[in-house]
Amino acid sequence: MDSFSTLIRTASHEQHVEAETSTFMSDLLGGRLGVAAYARYTEQLWFVYRALESAAERLASDPVAGPFVRPELFRLAALERDLAHLRGPGWRTGCTALPATEEYAARVRECAEGWTGGYLAHHYTRYLGDLSGGQIIRDRAERTWGFERKGDGVRFYVFEGIANPAAFKRDYRELLDAVDADDLEKQRIVTECRRAFALNTAVFRELGEEFPLSA
Ligand code: HEM
Asked: Which Gene3D superfamilies does the UniProt record give (predicted)?
């Protein structure tokens, strides 16, 4: 049988392509959207990472999720700096979650509270993605909207505490392979990972509706 890290990666491959090629992402990466769309997207991430990271401290001692909870991954402070840059110091006032984002964050909270295997699925889907494709998004954002390289506006994509992302991802996959769960639970985690991708795609869909190119 394939290792768990291979299983979870393979099982979400198709949905990864779907997320990557969603209209909103393609338009964003293609430099066809204004900075307002990028700011709105960043706001949505804030709700998701608040859900992920407000549970982290409590989950640090959990046998399944605990080994994955690493402070160098935390993104909330970086997102807040980016939002202050993008929206100004009063960014919290107008910061609202799209319905799909509400649903996404609610599911993360539900997993964090009742099922740490599910939390792990969400953790993997976000952080490993940010360490990978996130770097492509950062590069594009810097060039499209003129943010300072690795500076305010794109700090979300900069992991100051991770000198070697490739090595970090390798270690993360090793942790996945060593996860304390039986085959049935691993299957459930894979299913939740697919759900996590679907929740992301739904957010992109709503963002795409809010920022249609033809408007
Ligand atoms: C335009 C957007 C995106 C691009 C260009 C992109 C690109 C990439 C690339 C190049 C990798 C491979 C890294 C490697 O082999 O080590 C990767 C991995 C990954 N991406 Fe994305 N991605 C995008 C969007 C997303 C989204 C929306 C998610 C989910 C929220 C996501 C989740 C992941 C995950 C979990 C991995 C790690 C797979 C693994 O090795 O287990 N990506 N991405």
From this structure: Heme oxygenase-like
Provide the percentage of residues in the chain whose pLDDT is more than 90. 97
The per-residue DSSP string of the chain comes to ---HHHHHHHHTHHHHHHHHTSHHHHHHHTT-S-HHHHHHHHHHHHHHHHHHHHTHHHHTT-TTTGGG--GGG--HHHHHHHHHHHH-TTHHHH----HHHHHHHHHHHHHHHH-HHHHHHHHIIIIIHHHTTHHHHHHHHHHHH-PPTTSTTSGGG--TT-S-HHHHHHHHHHHHHT-S--HHHHHHHHHHHHHHHHHHHHHHHHHHHHS-TT-
Task: Give the pLDDT confidence of 57-82 residue by residue, as tens digits.
Answer: 899 999 999 999 999 999 999 999 99
| Residue ranges of domains in the chain | 4-210
Name every protein residue with a CB atom under 6 angstroms from any ligand 1 atom: 9, 16, 19-20, 25, 29, 124-126, 128-129, 132-133, 136, 169, 197, 200
Which atom in ligand 1 lies closest to the alpha carbon of residue 125? 35
Mean pLDDT, rounded, for 95-114: 98
Q: Give the architecture-level CATH label for domain 4-210.
A: Up-down Bundle (1.20)
* pTM for the model: 0.95
